[in-house]
Amino acid sequence: MLSSLTISEAHKKMKAKEISAEELMRSCLERIDAVDTKINAVIWHDAERALQEAKKIDQKKSFDDPLAGIPFLTKDVYCEVGIPTTACSNILRNKNYVPPFESTTTKRLKARGALSIGKVNTDEFTMGGSTETSCYGVTKNPWDQTRVAGGSSGGSAAAVSADECIFSLGTDTGGSIRQPASFCSCAGLRVTYGRTSRFGAMSMASSLDTTGPLAKTVEDLAIILQAIAGKDPLDATTGDAPVPDYQAGLTKLLKGLRIGLPKEYFLPGMNKEVEAAIRESAKVFQSLGATIVDVSLPMTKYAVATYYVLCPSEVSSNMARYDGIRFGHTVEKPENLIDYYERVRSEGFGAEVKRRIMVGTFALSAGYFDAYYRKAQQVRTLICKDFNDAFTTVDLILSPVAPNPALKIGEHAGDPVAMYLEDVFTIPQAMAGIPALSLPCGFSKDNLPIGLQLAGPQWSEELLLRAGYAFERETEWHTKKPAL
Ligand code: GLN
Fold this sequence. Notes:
It is a single chain. This protein has a domain at about 1-255 and about 435-480: Alpha-Beta Complex (Amidase signature (AS) enzymes). The protein is about 40% helix and about 15% strand. It has helices at about 5-15, 20-40, 45-60, 90-95, 105-110, 155-160, 180-185, 220-230, 245-250, 270-285, 300-320, 335-350, 350-365, 370-390, 415-420, 425-430, 460-475; strands spanning about 40-45, 70-75, 115-120, 140, 145-150, 165-170, 185-190, 210-215, 260, 290-295, 395-400, 435-445, 450-455. The strands form two sheets. An eleven-stranded mixed beta sheet has the order 1-3-2-6-8-7-12-13-11-9-10, sandwiched between helices. The chain has a two-stranded antiparallel sheet with strand order 4-5. Glutamine binds next to loops.
């Protein structure tokens, strides 16, 4: 099946004229037809349009770019000209919103010849860790359809793991690329805040949101990052740090690398299989020439509480644009303007979005600002300091991505705080704006994927990818496929 190829494998075959872009696209489309009813990852696609685009690439006969003719799926928060984009929220779905502009990330990929197939599922406006808050229903885990694929980029991870595409785009605010990658056994990269552009990707919490890839291998992540990284005049928060040659950096040796194991990420009650897989992974890095060092990140225990003040505060402001006038669906016969706003927003938003708007509005209100929002910003600085201190003694930090393998569908239904606590290992890096890689590193006895997380200082993507690439070449976890 061609759709199971990686970017670099497919590129070699297209370049050697063994396969065409059209054949590769057909294979992805056939796979979507064959398996998506089981997992519900793809929420919109247009097969005709995708095939036309593939034919255009074939006519150009230019396969020098590693992304030329490579089909990908996009989380439903990236705006693409002429393609319905809903953030999996009724407020946009009911309006049949079709963006008149293109996100920088999809624009950069398309400029290199990559081919967009369509849209994949996410939690509503990316608020969640399971896609259970999506207006299209939950995405099921390709490894076990009674479980979630993770979230919020659950559709992106499930689609890659099920070979419905060659790679996908996700966004990571507090773990949304890394956790679903870990639940579905694929590679995912959260970039340094500002490494990739957020322009045209619908915002949840603007000081935390990042755009980034999910793929089948680390090499593929490097190829995608090369195309999407770098300053964007349309996003003032992108940095001018030079973009290195990520692919060339992959094969450098790990000898002398110091990897920290943070004691706060190995808690007494944690899942034993997850812990064992991470400790085994540490040994693999050791065998590759790295030194393993114990480190401490004492502020870890405050990260979730801090995030769930700051994130909703930013949500409450970002969601204001969905007022039924600028964006969002319309209601019939409102009594007055206030009634109009109330009905648009109560009908359009789901429970989790409403909860965050309320929490955030409260935290930002004049009477409580100092007690909650300002305090949380101060703690955020301490979390950054934790990592800065640790990176004076180690180059990278190894930890689990999530405390457990994929959750059962509905496991935390009605208990939002239990769901929030699942983000304990992915929120701190987001708060500090540092990059982190999620990679397959084992399976539980129930055959559920387990992922490792490597985090590095700001702009250390090259080093992260190098370490991940070396790990991948030493292990076979990333080659395992779900039976669908
Ligand atoms: N699960 C976290 C949340 O609900 C992270 C989501 C994300 O990264 N988009 O906020």
